[in-house]
C-alpha cells in the first residue's frame, strides 16, 4: 500500500523514504515558523523553506475528550504544544499510552491517521528516547 499523502507545507518524503519536518525562515529577520509560509509573519518579507529538527520541549498539554465528526482521531487523546529546538511552537497529538509533561524533552514522529481515501500522514508527539 503506498504511503499516504503529506501536507507539503508541513513534511516531505526524503529519497530514503523518511520524512523531513518543514518550516520557513526569514532571511531578513531570522524568524522561523511551521508550517511553511511564503511571507514572514513578523516583517512581511519572503521566506525560505528549511528543514526543522523534529525535537523540542513540551510547553503545554491537554486531553481532548470531544471532537467534531470529521476529526480522524477518536477521543480521548492527548495534545501537546511543543517548542522545537529551531524555534517554532506546534501542536500535535500525543502517541497513545504516553503522557508528556511540561518541560519534557519530546520528539515528533510521523504516523498514519484515517482510513481508506481519508488516510494521511501526520505528526505525533513521543517522549524522547521511547
List the helices and strands and how they pair.
Blueprint: E1 11-13, E2 19-25, E3 32-33, E4 48-52, E5 55-64, E6 77-84, E7 89-93, E8 105-113, E9 120-127
Antiparallel strand pairs: 1-2, 2-3, 2-4, 5-6, 5-8, 6-7, 8-9
Based on the model shown, name its key terms:
130 residues; mainly beta; 5-stranded antiparallel beta sheet; 4-stranded antiparallel beta sheet; 9 strands; 0% helix; 44% strand
Structural commentary:
The protein is mainly beta. The chain has one domain (11-127). It has no helices and nine strands. The chain has strands at 11-13, 19-25, 32-33, 48-52, 55-64, 77-84, 89-93, 105-113, 120-127. The strands form two sheets. Strands 7-6-5-8-9 form a five-stranded antiparallel β-sheet, with no helix packed on it. Strand 2 (19-25) and strand 3 form a beta hairpin. The chain is globular, with a radius of gyration of 15 Å. The two termini are 27 Å apart. The model has no long low-confidence stretch (mean pLDDT 88). Residues 21-46 form the ChsH2 rubredoxin-like zinc ribbon domain. Residues 50-108 form the ChsH2 C-terminal OB-fold domain. This is DUF35 domain-containing protein. It comes from Pseudonocardia sulfidoxydans NBRC 16205. Pfam families: OB_ChsH2_C, zf-ChsH2.
Low-confidence segments, given as residue ranges, are none
Sheet of most strands: 5 strands, antiparallel
Structural class: mainly beta
Q: Calculate the mean pLDDT score and round it.
A: 88
**Total count of domains:** 1
Count of DSSP H/I helices: 0
Q: Shape, please? A: globular
Intertermini distance: 27 Å
Report strand %: 35-45%
Strand order of the largest sheet: 7-6-5-8-9
Helix and strand element order: EEEEEEEEE
Overall radius of gyration: 15 Å
Helix percentage range: under 10%
How many strands appear in the DSSP assignment? 9
Amino acid at each position: 500500500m503506498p504511503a499516504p499523502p503529506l501536507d507539503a507545507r508541513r513534511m516531505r518524503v526524503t529519497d530514503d523514504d523518511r520524512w523531513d519536518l518543514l518550516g520557513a525562515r526569514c532571511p531578513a529577520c531570522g524568524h522561523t515558523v511551521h508550517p511553511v509560509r511564503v511571507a514572514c509573519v513578523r516583517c512581511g518579507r519572503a521566506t525560505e523553506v528549511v528543514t526543522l529538527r523534529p525535537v523540542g520541549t513540551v510547553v503545554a498539554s491537554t486531553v481532548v475528550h470531544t471532537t467534531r465528526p470529521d476529526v480522524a482521531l477518536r477521543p480521548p487523546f492527548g495534545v501537546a504544544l511543543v517548542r522545537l529546538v529551531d524555534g517554532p511552537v506546534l501542536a500535535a497529538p500525543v502517541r497513545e499510552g504516553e503522557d508528556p509533561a511540561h518541560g519534557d524533552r519530546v520528539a515528533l514522529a510521523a504516523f498514519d491517521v484515517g482510513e481508506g481515501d481519508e488516510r494521511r500522514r501526520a505528526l505525533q508527539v513521543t517522549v524522547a528516547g521511547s
